[in-house]
Amino acid sequence: MHPIVKSEALPETRPLFPKGTHPIETGRYLIGTNEIDHLYKKVVQCLTNRSTGVIIHGRPRLGKTRALEYLMRILPEEFDNIPIYFLLSREYKNANENIFFQDILLDIGHAVPFSGKADKKRQRLLWFLIERANQSGKRRIVFFIDDAQRLVDMQYGWLMDIYNDLDRVGISLTVFLVGQDELVNRRSSFGAEGKQQIIGRFMVHQHQFSGVKTKGDLEEILEGYDKYSYPQDTTWTMTRYYFPTAYLNGFRLKNFTDSIFEAFIQLRKAAGIRSKIEIPMQYITLTIEYLLREFGVEGENLEGLSDEHFEEAVENSGYIEAETNVIFG
Prior knowledge:
Blueprint: H1 23-26, H2 34-48, E1 53-57, H3 64-78, E2 84-88, H4 97-107, H5 118-136, E3 140-146, H6 153-168, E4 172-179, H7 182-192, H8 196-202, E5 205-208, H9 215-227, H10 238-242, H11 244-248, H12 257-270, H13 281-295, H14 307-317, H15 319-328
Parallel strand pairs: 1-4, 1-5, 2-3, 3-4
GO molecular function, one term: ATP hydrolysis activity
Protein name: ORC1/DEAH AAA+ ATPase domain-containing protein
């Protein structure tokens, strides 16, 4: 067992929640990471410089969507409530203008997304965006488009129509295309096809979103579990909730950074995975959630954790199976 260090006892009675409703059970929580911090700085730089378009790309399951959710909470305050919208690129058998504008109206929260044909929906969207931009006093609109690798040429054309319509009335649109690495290949294809107008509006800059590569990356995440309180404004962090007694004696997930990272490395070696380590955020959270649920007070109620527990948690996250499929197809 890893040693735990004594610390001052904390007051309060452990809160009780209906089974399956704690954030560790639902998975609905946001933990800051080094990579989110890097992304935040890139986004702030692009917004400050009034960049028109940015590609944010990375392999699947790195945590890009969760990172966007995190940014959506803090960016409006950072930029004086500039209208910022999170759009989801959907996959269709046959893309058409009517559905395209309808989906954007839905995603921005418009009260009347379904009524009328494509031209009416497009006009309704334009008026809505103009109104919001004027209300903010900034005359700017920001779109984050998730799963943007799904966009087809026609959709880029319709998106360009929105950009041009706003530009004609003096409102600037910044678009962040968030998706898989094929977005970079798409940019190259547009260049080869002479479609510089698309690149110039939506693909000027690039940012590669990465997974957990170092112990420092992992430590930042683990410390988040040690500090993230639920309910808010209490001392019941995620770590404390599942290890209440051990927590009072100094138990912190952050202290196990080396051991958890080593568990990933050893299991990779055993599976014959030799590529550079880059752990998707999904498998980090599944590993930590397993440790808390299975070995904390709701499970085996242990007072400490061992290397065997860490390896068991990594195995149960599905990480090795996923990496093996990526490497060996």
